[in-house]
Design goal:
Layout: E1 2-10, E2 13-19, E3 24-28, H1 35-45, E4 62-69, H2 76-81, E5 89-96, E6 102-106, E7 109-111, H3 113-123, E8 124-127, H4 138-149, H5 152-199, H6 205-216, H7 219-234, H8 240-254, H9 259-288, H10 293-312, H11 318-336, H12 338-384, E9 391-403, E10 406-415, E11 423-424, H13 425-428, H14 431-448, E12 453-457, H15 465-478, E13 484-487, H16 491-494, E14 499-508, E15 511-518, H17 521-533, H18 539-549
Parallel strand pairs: 3-13, 3-14, 8-12, 12-13
Antiparallel strand pairs: 1-2, 1-4, 4-5, 5-6, 6-7, 9-10, 10-11, 14-15
């Protein structure tokens, strides 16, 4: 419920602060006094676009602040989802700076305009002539029916399912596209994969082969030098081994004479042992050196295979070839396993689809169940509002399409005249008729859901007499369940409010300003009398005003 509105430096308003209460509040005033300015200010504080033309004084900032009592609206979860502090008395503030920039705050927390838009849906419904065009919007028509059918929870569940369904369908489309692209490359990838699979490459294999070939390709030099080295080591006359034996014998003979000779003898013995070991390995190496042309051919073929594969795949190591082998394995498997993957994804989609169909069917049945009641209520209210021949024709039928609120197609038709043809509301109803239809719908909605504060902007345009009394009565009934604020030019409606505000203009230092004030009982009598007879208030007008108020 809107409890307070404060405006500074906006349009013709210099400064204004007014309190609102529950029930039916009336706002009246002469044409051009500033009633539309109030609505513009409320629109701004709830997220409408702002510009510098909104500023009364372009050198100062404009501030609009609205306070709402939100205890009865169950908005804790919404505030949490918007990441703003929940307060039972929530204050929304909008500032427009002289630079043209604007700022918004909820309970002193800076927010962007999308947050205000989300809150507006729950807090404030400004009904104007323009809003009656919503009557022709199929989503609004479904909203009316779903409120009566109490489908909100089921539709929320359906929407979650639809989101998952669309996500799975998108995944399937990507899979199909990927499979199609993979199939085009499959034969070539399979050939490359089999080639690497048959090669059976091992890490370090290339270096080992290159080393073996290096040895085999120089076998003659290796054999010659090994033989000569062995001869120099073991020759009986001039061999290193023979000379070391002789040297060791000499030093052993004198080793006992001093510690120095003993150490020299030990060192020669150590060298002799190491040389004996080297000679043994030289003999083994010399015996093993053998040229095998078949082995050379095999090693050359293997190395050439490795080189060819590296050149083909533009790499320089077996490690890189193995990574390519793994990648090709995945690509080949993707195509070979495609049937199983697609079947699994299609099964997921079918499961979600079945649940969606069940929910959509439940939603549709609930809608059809309340249509006779909605038709009866609206036709009764419109008869009260001077449209006794108004008739509605509703038809809800399941389709094969998944819409955001179910699978139903809706025909929402209207006929204003007896024997007239049914047609779309925007084509067969006048502006005044649309206003009364919207009022009737809001009345029905207010009895079946917790509506936000509603502001009617001259919804009584084009009506008078008894119909205006009926409009006032409907607003009074609505105000028992919610806060209703109405801007009106009809005294019959103005007299039915629980409180009455007047928009007026005055000159301050030669500058015209708009203001708003709460009328006292006496002020109210004079205001209604003026609405009845004009500026020159007559006694009969005053008497009539008192009668209306009573």
């Amino acid at each position: 419920m809107l409890t307070q509105l404060a405006i500074q430096n906006y349009a013709l308003i210099n400064q204004l602060s007014i309190d609102f209460t529950k029930g039916l509040s009336i706002i009246t005033g002469e044409t051009g006094a500033g009633k539309s300015i109030l609505l513009g200010a409320l629109g701004l504080v709830m997220g409408n676009r702002a510009d510098l033309s909104s500023l009364k004084n372009t050198e100062k900032k404009c501030v609009i602040e609205a306070q709402f009592s939100v205890d009865d609206y169950g908005l804790q979860d919404l505030f949490d989802s918007l990441d703003i502090d929940y307060e039972s008395e929530t204050i929304i503030r909008r500032e427009i700076l002289p630079s043209g920039k604007s700022r918004a705050f909820v309970n002193d927390t800076p927010v962007n305009l999308s947050v205000l838009t989300s809150l507006k849906v729950k807090l404030l419904d400004i009904h104007s002539q323009h809003q009656t065009m919503e009557l022709s919007d199929v989503n609004f028509q479904f909203h009316i029916i779903d409120v009566l059918a109490k489908n909100q929870t089921k539709i929320a569940s359906y929407k979650r399912g639809l989101k998952k369904y669309n996500s799975l369908k998108k995944e399937l489309a990507i899979l199909l596209q990927s499979q199609d692209e993979a199939k085009q490359q499959y034969e070539y990838n399979l050939h490359l994969f089999n080639e690497l699979e048959e090669a059976n490459l091992e890490i370090g294999e290339q270096e080992t082969i290159e080393e073996k070939l290096e040895k085999l390709n120089n076998i003659e030099d290796i054999k010659l030098n090994l033989s000569e080295a062995l001869q120099k080591a073991i020759s009986e006359e001039m061999g290193v081994q023979s000379m070391l034996y002789s040297l060791e014998n000499n030093l052993q003979k004198i080793a006992s004479f001093s510690k120095e000779y003993e150490e020299l003898s030990a060192r020669i013995t150590s060298i002799k042992i190491e040389l004996d070991d080297v000679v043994s390995e030289l003999e083994n190496a010399n015996e093993q050196v053998e040229y095998n042309p078949i082995e050379v051919e095999e090693l050359n073929d293997r190395l050439q295979l490795i080189y060819n594969l590296q050149k083909k795949h533009l790499v320089s190591s077996i490690e890189e070839l193995q990574k390519i082998h793994e990648s090709l394995s995945e690509k080949v498997a993707q195509v070979e396993d495609a049937g199983e993957i697609l079947t699994k994804k299609e099964a997921e989609i079918k499961e979600v689809e079945t649940k969606l169909d069940e929910l959509a069917n439940t939603i549709s049945k609930a809608r059809n169940k309340v249509l006779p009641k909605l038709k009866k209520q609206l036709e009764f209210l419109l008869a009260e509002l001077g449209m006794p021949n108004a008739r509605f024709s509703f038809e809800v039928a399941l389709s094969d399409n998944y819409y955001t609120n179910g699978k139903d197609d809706l025909l929402f038709l209207f006929s204003a005249n007896k024997g007239g043809n049914f047609g779309e509301l925007k084509k067969v109803a006048s502006g005044g008729e649309l206003s009364r239809i919207m009022l009737s719908i809001k009345k029905v909605l207010s009895e079946n859901s917790k509506l936000p504060t509603i502001i009617f902007d001259e919804i009584d345009t084009g009506v008078s007499g008894e119909v205006s009394n009926k409009i006032a009565a409907i607003m009074q009934q609505m105000s028992e369940n919610m806060q209703v604020i109405t801007i009106t030019h009809l005294p019959q409606i103005a007299a039915k409010g629980n409180q009455h505000y007047k928009v007026y203009k005055k000159e301050v230092s030669g500058v015209t300003e708009s203001n708003l004030k709460l009328l006292t009982e006496e002020d109210r009598i004079r205001e209604i009398a003026e609405m009845l007879s004009g500026k020159d208030i007559t006694e009969s007008a005053l008497t009539h005003a008192k009668e209306l108020l009573n």
